[in-house]
Predict the structure.
Amino acid sequence: MSLLSKCQQPDDSGRIQRVTPESAGWGHVGFEAYLLTKGQTLRLESGDKELCLVLVAGLASVKTQQADFPGLGQRMSPFERTPPYSVYVPHHDSVEVHADSDLELAVCSAPGKGSLPARLIAPADVGVEQRGKGNNKRLVHNILPDSEVADSLLVVEVYTDEGNTSSYPSHKHDEETENETYLEETYYHRFDPPQGFAMQRVYTDDRSLDECMAAYNRDVVTVPRGYHPVATIAGYDNYYLNVMAGPVRLWKFSWEQDHAWVNSERYPRES
């Protein structure tokens, strides 16, 4: 089973990506991406899932059974590097998204089991942080971290400048231990300029899983287990939207020991 889901031409609903637990061979994370034209309306049923709708680029009005969020959005490209507008939708709800401009919409899903209300996640609600140093720096937008309420979903977006690495030093979250939680993960990649690509490797300690793939604009990489670093290519800045979920809604991970030194004072090394 390939870990790389290539971007498709929009179908009648505007959908360009669809990853389900069944297609990924796991139990929790689902991901869809849509390109809607101005004036188009998308209708979704959450069923037994909770949803996080992320306005990757463009303007929209969102309505659920109990809530109405008109006139959302401010960034017209994710590479404006401002936090997005998002909407949390509980399970057993329906949602209508009206594109007030051309719209790139991500639909993140995972099992819903509580009774949380639909809510707006505005840019001011998104935690912004810089991580890393040297050629391992990235900008992080914490849209739905484990410090905010949800049943299963964890959602974050990350910016990595050309020639840098991220999701690095290599780390994993594929066991239920004192140091880790089991979390499945998807990466939705975007590039500036859009013809760019990044290299992403997914591998385990015993190398029973060891794949390296070139992710292009709007491709999705699925991470069922193992380490999953990303390396950008000179000339192309990278954005990715991460969705994680598992049995326990907590992000705990362990570093691959060979590369953990990159976190230490020994890096970056003096030239």
Remarks:
- The radius of gyration is 18 Å.
